[in-house]
């Protein structure tokens, strides 16, 4: 089904390059990488450690900018956007899920999930409604007043996913979302992502697990910052 | 958004109790000290600013010796003459004669020390508000008197009762209370309890003699006149009225005006018995305030930065979700503003609690203008400066990181950051060491002065003032009875006890072309014996020489030297006090120099002569029971001056009076430097906690690999102590320079011993080490398995 899309792809990167310079060495993290991802896809990115997966995800998420190449997101060239513009585009369109959850320890479950709504300027009453809705969906409503440290890993990741989706983003980027979880909790997370994808959210997920990758439509395999193979799932 | 800011700021404070406590404690102490000093300084600079006509009020100063500061003491005729001669310049002239009197009402009698005899315009010229009575007429009638509120209550129980009552001054004057003045605030150079018309004295024989100086003259100039315009007439004025006297003294006297606002900061050594301030002290205190605030702010910056690093995940996540750099800057600055606000609130509370103690330390009541803007402006200023200054570094530092780096928790503080933080710690400790050095030097100097041999015997010596007519008229009887009482070894009546008043007079001396100026002591024959002075040439005054009273004089060694003689050569030469002696006196003896002046002043020439002028009785007790001896003296005093209360002091307490301000400065400086090092250590403690926490894993690994607790302690402390060491090295030369300068205030001073600096260094080092090892030890002793698992 990939590649047959009539409409323009959601993400189109062309000859993307990213270097890291330290005092001693220069690392080429992404080497003239070109990828297209259509709206509604569920893509897994795999590859050995250090091949540039996280780097790619950060650039796709507009957390970082590339050194060369083009990145078109929904028909907009964003490769050279200012921080302010990127932040603006990001907060309305993209949700993030990390391996280490990255919940803010000082805020409760409810407040953590509420935070993206605050940054997009949603009114208070509407925020409560939407946070409760999503917490309900993630089945952590009963933990709404707990602090992250009081939750299990699986619960924390569910909060993180809740936070990622509360703004109803078009794209969710997940960097090894199951990396810190046991297989049962991991499967729960994968089910959640699959549900979200079925409801129309585009998902790009970095993973080391072939098992998790099987939930996706397509696997992009990277090696040394270059795409070496694409497997399309049946 | 704002609510979220405040919420997270508050949770952050709450969650990191140690850090918040260090922050708030340090800042609160800093702000409190600054507030205290701020109040002190505003009080100093507000002195006399409440007088509505203040900008046209001047005090007349009289110069008598180009080498000495002018004196404020003038005689009775100046004011009427000035007013008469320059009516176009002078609108009003008011004489103020400070005196002490026995004041009685019925059974109650007190020797009042703060009595002013003034011209009737006193309350018109100065804006001392009257609670009762009319300022323009209260002193019109010579038989009227104005009391302050407190004095009125002392005699009559209440201000209502006081009005119209008649009090008695020195048993001779009957005065009716016609006004009650508000108590004189501490920010006034004039200070009185009782004011009554000087008209009661203007007919006294000596009052209208031009050279009988003993009162102040205040002038109100006309709007169109100026200080210089009036001063330009003064040479002519002095020639007109004083030419004869100037000829007789062989000196030129001149007049000058001091604007009212300038009086307070005039040279305090002029001995004019009004309140004086010291600009050096003001400067020292401002410096201390700035330094302590600096220390507190540095703590704030360092700890906030470190704290912020620990919050990198939060920063990162906020950025991921779309927070912009300025959001984060606002948040961090907001948090530091919140902390500053909390600290300020606590400081104000603390200040209110400390106020009585602070007033006691200062020795007077500060007038705090709570209803005026300056103090609030100051508080807002402190909050803004601290909040913005201390908050902006971590804010800008942190918000500059990219979200990815922040999320990785990789906000390493970089080489530059570490260097900056270390330099700030060096700065903090330099200041602390500096203050410690200052404190030790001042303590050392005070000790030196206290224990220095002054050249006279001050032990077991009682001073009784001859300050009323009864005791004055019966002073011989008083002396004789004391000598016969058996408790006294000797008594001498004199014009000034050591450390007291020594007027400068002009002399004509054998073989001298120029007038010779010298301090004078007018005393009886027991002077040398009572003070235990040493005769180094010739002899003491003696009753065996009947003419000594009129013909003999003693010099101190300096006086002999200034006349160009060795002590031996001086004997037999003549000398004449231009103002006092009709004929020359012969120098019969020379005494060894003794410190009759404060040790701040150089040794001066002193001429001791038996002319009239007895102001104090100095009584040397026999060794033994002091209370019993005092009781005997009191009994004798009661016999000769029955209505006057018996008041006395000890000669060795004179020290505390003479060095009152230095002792206060010492006390305050020790407190403030103690606070400074405490605040600096709070910061060090914070840094140590951070280092220990950051290196928990490293310590764990090292311990697993076999490192001992001592090794780890050494490892942790070494890095922390380096800046302290550097600070000590930097502070020492600065401390040497500053304290050397301070010591120049004293004619007699200790050397800046090397051990002072070593002591300051060791002290700082030990305190710092103690602070650091507290945390380091905890880290070093922790179970390695635990710290490794926590990763
Ligand atoms: N901030 C950085 N500075 C220098 N080099 C970096 C930085 N971040 C990543 N790299 C380098 O870029 C390359 C790609 O890193 P990246 O984090 O994208 O790998 P990854 O595929 O996510 O690996 P893993 O599966 O281990 O997470 C690596 O060689 C890494 O060392
Ligand atoms: Mg990675």
From TrEMBL, chain B:
Q: What is its main location?
A: membrane
Q: How does it sit in the membrane?
A: Multi-pass membrane protein
UniProt keyword Cell membrane, yes or no: yes
Q: What are the UniProt keywords, alphabetically?
A: Cell membrane, Membrane, Transmembrane, Transmembrane helix
Has UniProt tagged this entry with the keyword Transmembrane? Answer: yes
Location in or out of the cell: Cell membrane
What InterPro entries does the entry give? ABC3_permease_C, MacB_PCD, Macrolide_Exporter_MacB
**TM regions (residue ranges):** 21-41, 281-303, 328-355, 375-398, 419-443, 667-693, 724-742, 754-774
What is the top-level taxon of the source organism?
A: Bacteria
Q: Start and end of every ABC3 transporter permease C-terminal domain?
A: 287-401, 671-780
Pfam families, alphabetized: FtsX, MacB_PCD
Tell me the ranges covered by the MacB-like periplasmic core domain, including all copies: 20-234, 429-632
Family annotation (PANTHER family): ABC-TYPE MACROLIDE FAMILY EXPORT SYSTEM PERMEASE COMPONENT 2, MEMBRANE COMPONENT OF TRANSPORTER-RELATED
The protein's name: ABC transport system permease protein
């Amino acid at each position: 089904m990939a590649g047959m899309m009539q409409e323009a792809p959601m993400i189109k990167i062309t000859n993307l390059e990213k270097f890291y310079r330290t005092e001693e060495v220069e690392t080429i993290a992404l080497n003239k990488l070109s990828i297209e991802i259509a709206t509604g896809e569920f893509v897994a990115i795999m590859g050995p450690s250090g091949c540039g997966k996280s780097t790619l995800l950060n650039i796709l998420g507009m957390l970082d900018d590339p050194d060369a190449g083009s990145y078109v997101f929904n028909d907009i060239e964003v490769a050279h956007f200012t921080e302010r513009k990127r932040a603006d585009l990001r907060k309305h369109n993209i949700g993030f899920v990390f391996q280490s959850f990255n919940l803010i320890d000082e805020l409760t479950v409810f407040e953590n999930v509420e935070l993206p709504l605050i940054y997009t300027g949603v009114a208070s009453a509407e925020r409560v409604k939407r946070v409760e809705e999503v917490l309900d969906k993630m089945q952590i409503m009963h933990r709404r007043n707990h602090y992250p440290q009081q939750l299990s890993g699986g619960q924390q990741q569910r909060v993180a996913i809740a936070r990622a989706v509360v703004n109803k983003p078009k794209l969710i980027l997940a960097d090894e979302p199951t990396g810190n979880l046991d297989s049962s909790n991991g499967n729960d997370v994968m089910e959640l992502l699959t549900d979200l994808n079925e409801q129309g959210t585009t998902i790009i997920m970095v993973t080391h697990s072939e098992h998790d990758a099987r939930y996706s439509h397509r696997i992009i395999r990277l090696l040394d910052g270059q795409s070496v193979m694409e497997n399309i799932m049946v | 958004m704002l609510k979220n800011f405040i919420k997270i700021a508050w949770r952050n404070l709450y969650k990191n109790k140690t850090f918040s406590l260090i922050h708030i404690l340090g800042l609160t102490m800093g702000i409190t000290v600054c507030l205290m000093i701020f109040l002190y300084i505003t009080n100093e600079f507000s002195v006399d600013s409440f007088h509505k006509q203040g900008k046209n009020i001047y005090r007349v100063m009289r110069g008598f010796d180009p080498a000495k500061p002018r004196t404020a003491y003038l005689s009775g005729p100046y004011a009427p003459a000035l007013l008469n001669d320059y009516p176009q310049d002078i609108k009003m002239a008011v004489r103020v004669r400070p005196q002490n009197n026995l004041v009685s009402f019925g059974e109650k009698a007190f020797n009042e020390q703060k009595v002013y005899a003034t011209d009737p315009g006193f309350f018109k010229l100065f804006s001392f508000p009257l609670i009762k009575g009319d300022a323009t007429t209260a002193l019109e009638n010579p038989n009227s008197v104005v009391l302050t509120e407190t004095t009125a209550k002392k005699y009559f129980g209440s201000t209502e009762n006081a009005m119209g009552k008649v009090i008695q001054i020195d048993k001779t004057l009957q005065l009716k209370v016609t006004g009650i003045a508000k108590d004189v605030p501490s920010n006034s150079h004039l200070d009185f309890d009782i004011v009554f018309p000087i008209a009661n004295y203007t007919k006294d024989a000596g009052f209208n003699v031009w050279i009988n100086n003993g009162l102040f003259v205040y002038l109100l100039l006309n709007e169109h006149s100026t200080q210089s315009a009036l001063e330009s007439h003064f040479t002519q004025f002095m020639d007109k009225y004083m030419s004869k006297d100037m000829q007789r003294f062989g000196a030129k006297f001149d007049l000058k005006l001091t604007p009212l606002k300038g009086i307070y900061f005039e040279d305090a050594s002029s001995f004019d018995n009004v309140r004086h301030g010291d600009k050096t002290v003001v400067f020292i205190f401002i410096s201390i305030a700035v330094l302590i605030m600096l220390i507190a702010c540095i703590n704030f910056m360092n700890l906030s930065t470190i704290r912020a690093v620990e919050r990198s995940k939060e920063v990162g996540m906020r950025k991921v979700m779309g927070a912009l750099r300025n959001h984060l800057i606002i948040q961090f600055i907001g948090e530091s503003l919140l902390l500053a606000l909390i600290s300020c609130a606590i400081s104000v509370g603390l200040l209110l609690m400390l106020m009585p103690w602070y007033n006691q330390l200062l020795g007077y009541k500060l007038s705090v203008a709570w209803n005026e803007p300056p103090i609030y402006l100051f508080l807002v200023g402190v909050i803004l400066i601290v909040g913005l200054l201390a908050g902006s570094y971590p804010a800008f530092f942190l918000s500059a990181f990219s979200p990815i780096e922040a999320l990785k928790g990789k906000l390493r503080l970089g080489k530059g950051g570490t260097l900056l933080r270390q330099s700030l710690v060096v700065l903090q400790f330099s200041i602390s060491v500096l203050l410690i050095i200052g404190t030790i030097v001042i303590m050392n100097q005070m000790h030196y002065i206290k224990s220095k041999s002054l050249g006279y015997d001050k032990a077991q010596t009682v001073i009784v003032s001859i300050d009323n007519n009864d005791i004055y008229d019966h002073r011989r009887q008083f002396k004789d009875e004391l000598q016969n009482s058996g408790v006294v070894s000797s008594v001498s009546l004199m014009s000034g006890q050591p450390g007291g008043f020594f007027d400068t007079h002009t002399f004509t001396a054998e073989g001298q072309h120029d007038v010779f100026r010298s301090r004078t002591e007018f005393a009886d024959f027991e002077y040398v014996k009572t003070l235990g002075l040493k005769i180094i040439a010739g002899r003491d005054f003696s009753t065996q020489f009947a003419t000594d009273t009129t013909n003999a004089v003693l010099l101190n060694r300096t006086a002999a030297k200034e006349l160009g003689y060795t002590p031996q050569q001086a004997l037999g030469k003549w000398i004449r006090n231009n103002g006092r002696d009709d004929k020359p006196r012969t120098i019969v003896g020379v005494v060894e120099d003794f410190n009759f002046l404060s040790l701040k002043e150089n040794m001066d020439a002193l001429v001791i002569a038996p002319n009239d002028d007895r102001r104090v009785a100095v009584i040397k007790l026999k060794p033994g029971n002091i209370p019993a001896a005092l009781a005997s003296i009191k009994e004798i005093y009661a016999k000769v001056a029955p209505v006057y209360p018996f008041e006395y002091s000890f000669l060795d307490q004179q020290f505390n009076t003479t060095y009152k301000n230095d002792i206060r400065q010492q006390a305050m400086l020790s407190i403030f430097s103690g606070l400074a090092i405490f605040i600096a250590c709070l910061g060090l403690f914070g840094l140590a906690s951070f280092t220990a926490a950051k290196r928990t894993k490293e310590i764990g690994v090292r311990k697993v690999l076999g490192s001992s607790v001592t090794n780890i302690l050494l490892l942790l402390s070494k890095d922390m102590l380096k800046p302290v060491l550097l600070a000590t090295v930097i502070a020492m030369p600065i401390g040497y320079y500053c304290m050397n300068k301070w010591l120049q205030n004293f004619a007699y001073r200790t050397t800046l011993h090397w051990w002072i600096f070593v002591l300051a260094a060791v002290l700082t080092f030990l305190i710092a080490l103690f602070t650091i090892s507290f945390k380091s030890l905890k880290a070093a002793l922790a179970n390695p398995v635990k710290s490794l698992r926590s990763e």
